[in-house]
Amino acid sequence: MLPTLDEEGALRDVYSRIPIEELKQRGYSTRVVVVDGGSKDNTVKVAEELGCDVIQQWGEGKGAGMRQGFKKFLELGDDELVMLDCDGTYHPEEITKMVDSIPKNGIAIGDRLHGNLQPDAMTSTNWIGNQLLTWLAVALHGKTVNDLCSGFWAFSRGALERLQLNSMRFEIEAEMYTSCAYQNIPITHVPITYSKRVGEAKLGSIRDGTSIARKLIIRRIFPTPHEEQ
């Protein structure tokens, strides 16, 4: 599953590097689903040309799109799902490593902070912010996580069935972590490669960091979403 918003510059390359043949050799039947958040460029056209399934999300924000993609996954009856941001920062070649690392009924999270963090891939401000938010998450919820804001996750069906989410924006990863903490969903951490993104960044350091911290605090007070949107 590839969440997109104006990612025509990276989509073809990301798609071409997905190890579809290797996954087939391991017995997997694969599909690539693009969840688009209202791109104004040619992202949807490129996705259709590549043969991807395209979901035009019904709400604004990454969280809304991911939840819609999760719902579709569960409806289709598939066994495992890999989600990575489609901006060129993550390396699709590592999908097999992520899939191999999924614990039973659990989740594997790509760990940039203890992996191969390439030069200029993350600003010092974002690195510090990620460290602080990861520390805050563990301090509030008690479950180990190495890289809270990673955009590279691999899910078992059993884990996705238990996640309780209502996030609309970039706080979705933080809420997935808190749901794992309260639902006792196993997590493994997989060191991954992280590169400089293609195109303009969508994540705003202060505004989105504050939103993520707020979600962590809210889920400490109210572990279960009051209303799933």
Give descriptors for this structure.
single chain; 229 residues; alpha/beta; Spore Coat Polysaccharide Biosynthesis Protein SpsA, Chain A; three-stranded parallel sheet; 42% helix
How would you characterize this protein structure?
The protein has 229 residues and is of the alpha/beta class. It has one domain (2-221): Alpha-Beta Complex (Spore Coat Polysaccharide Biosynthesis Protein SpsA, Chain A), CATH 3.90.550. The chain has nine helices and seven strands, in the order βααβαβαβαβαβααβα. The strands form two sheets. It has a four-stranded mixed sheet with strand order 4-6-5-7. It has a three-stranded parallel sheet with strand order 1-2-3, sandwiched between helices. Helix 3 (43-49) links the parallel strand 2 and strand 3. The chain is globular. The relative contact order is 0.17. The mean pLDDT is 93.
